[in-house]
């Protein structure tokens, strides 16, 4: 081969094709692109000893053929050289290439023809002047480089001798004989210096501070360990590590620019080291051109700036005619953008001329995806997707979580029931059974109680033993993960899912890298360390894929540098997003304002684009948090948007929210809508025949069901429906047994005995408990499931034992020493009244005590489940209200005080006394945390938190509706309303009505 001909070995190329729906970005490296006797050739070397893969290789060469055609307007011939066979095979272009590659696509693919969106006049002028030489164009962002490639290729100005890259990519490509300190490895290195006990947030901040110190070498790191920098440098030297700043310095010393024409397409760096590098490049390049973004993009042949040039950047001198639309929330902000796009005539044919830029990918990408899909507006995200977004990543995370716990049933089921494991129906049935009996620890399940499930139980135990059980060493996890992937043939299972397969390989690579990083630093780690590192790196890592939807490109703010699209939509003009708030780092004493000035510079560029830019801002964030408008909005006009006119299906239906629909009355959905508003014929709101019997007898349970949802009351207390799945042994049954034990203990004088002889009272209670367990045929010794349920009552039932029964006796001795024990499991049946309201009650009260000195009745209720005192205020729990009314009748002229005795678990705040309710006086010993009702005249007592007459008013509103036969679906939004409802599967709230 004549060396005087053009030759480009190891040439990286990228191409773009689409069919209007799908978009592919294809990249690769051509072994050799060369020109011989005015003909261009693509040569690819293969080491195969046969030609079995020739058809596949021909597709690869044909891919390179259309890419060099698109990029350089070069019609190249293809060649494959088999070195082992010493044979050269020619590859001809086939016009059927795209139909063969995508046989299932109805629309044909073509090379994408991008619209010009950048002003490249200065670059094009330089290229035409220096076209015979090697040219390197340096940009600030990767997206900027790609846009320039696309635009120059469209205008036939791109040739193989022109390289277009951002500075960070050029630096990363340099060979370094030492280990690079990535951000994650840097954090790990700092952790090894300061010790594992330091918080991860502190380590992250300290790592950032050390990174800054590496750049400037004069940053003062304000940290208690004054030798931290010295220790870090010693570690770097010992382990042969290099930071990004070290690499940059090596690059500036060794990279040869002498044969290249270098074009620096503006400088947007805010570090002194980058400015010094550009200065060096300007002096060492064969020819140098700087497109001066500080001086109206004029072209200069030198670079004589330092970082202080940012001080010269000024805010706009006057307000622009541009407009920012202020929306209520981020959701409305995105929706307004969607409507603005739809209002553009023939917008589908102008997609490539318009760009969307966002201040935060994390905030806007999910909302853009959901909202734009409703409007059928296609999007293409330049930023990659976080690895955490992929199901296969979550599956691997679940495996690691199970490696940590190895016994938590939720972790077990997350793995064995994952779709990647192809679980059968028996596993789902087993999971339902385990959850039904309240098991949390897998190994609490006893073989002997599983005669019909023992096979599956043994299978799961064996699965954990063989595939999950791992030593508590960080280095064993990587190996175990790879074994798991191999044993269950995950790679083979994903062979038809290119994206998931690539993600899996990246995830396994991250796992391997964590072990390698610990090994490099000579650190030992455990499973927990691995899990934390692994999750952090999954969040930080992103992946881009060659196949995407063809649509509006969504880019970051600084990807818009030099962008001159016909329309640029800017989302996220809020304070702390743009301008971005400087992250506070207590370990850095040196700070500057250059980041803000860089953002001012970008704002000035946008303002110069005039009406080509449309801004958006919002008053509320994703979680409803208040957002402040950007200070930069002082320089544009603002327009408050109250209502977003929508063409989406969602908003079509929202137009009818709260309004009667009078058309199509025979449509069941419309009838239900109107009835729910209370303006229909009440066919769908649970209307039954009016109840002529005015006497209703309420228990606490029935009243609670009525308050939460009248339909729930109808199902349970009128129709007397029973749940389909009944679990014989559960926590509710346990609660009944504990109540009966305490009832017998109280009636046999147990609490009175405890005042004088605690040991004797505990022995008495233990005896009662043992007999009750035997009567109920409960085997606590051999039945691990039941033992787990009762262990807080059965274990350590001795004086000073850590036991819920012992705790209860202790706090009775402490709190009720002045009280006389009156009654236990007191039944009350009869009518009570409050003002003009009357209710018939049938209730049972756990324990009643009396203090004659304070003229007080104290009532306690044992709770072995959840206690939420706030439910009384929300009208979700009626227990203490109904008790209060009954006790007023039983003990007139007495002060009534009610309290929960919590017996849920031995954890803090899950046993002991709750807040007090009732007629608590200021001189009472129960003053602390008291909640006071109104007095008998309906007047609110000072500092009262619950008003009885308002509660009763609400109760009787529900009762009156019930009398009219209106058993409607609740419209209350509290999560506890429908929680644990036994009738959710048959409730109209979860059913669909179809028009006939």
Question: How would you characterize the overall build of this protein?
Answer:
There is one protein chain. The model is unreliable at about 920-930, about 935-945 and about 990-995 (pLDDT under 50). Strands 24, 25, 26, 27, 28, 29, 30 and 31 form an eight-stranded mixed β-sheet that branches. Strands 1, 2, 3, 4, 5, 6 and 19 form a seven-stranded mixed β-sheet that branches. Strands 16-20-15-21-22-14-23 form a seven-stranded parallel β-sheet. The protein has about 1000 residues and is an alpha/beta fold. The protein has 34 helices and 31 strands. Strand 11, helix 10 (about 270-285) and strand 12 form a beta-alpha-beta unit. Helix content is about 40%, strand content about 20%. The radius of gyration is 37 Å and the shape is elongated. Helix 11 (about 330-340) crosses helix 12 (about 360-375), helix 13 packs antiparallel against helix 14 (about 410-415) and helix 24 (about 700-710) packs antiparallel against helix 25 (about 710-720).
Could you write a compact summary of the structure shown?
By secondary structure, the chain is of the alpha/beta class. The longest helix has 23 residues, at 498-520.
Describe how the helices and strands are arranged.
Elements lengths: L6 E12 L3 E15 L2 E8 L7 H19 L3 E7 L4 E5 L5 H5 L8 E2 L9 H9 L4 E6 L2 H13 L7 E5 H6 L6 E2 L2 H12 L5 H17 L11 H12 L1 E2 L1 H11 L5 E5 L7 H13 L2 E6 L5 E3 L22 E7 H13 L11 E5 L2 H15 L3 E3 L3 E2 L4 H15 L3 H8 L8 H12 L17 H15 L5 H14 L2 H4 L4 H23 L6 H14 L1 E2 L3 E3 L2 E5 L10 E5 L22 H15 L4 E8 L16 E4 L8 H6 L13 H9 L20 E2 L1 H9 L1 H9 L12 H17 L2 H7 L1 H18 L8 H11 L9 H12 L4 E15 L2 E15 L4 E8 L6 H4 L5 H12 L4 E9 L7 E3 L2 E3 L11 E3 L15 H16 L11 H4 L18
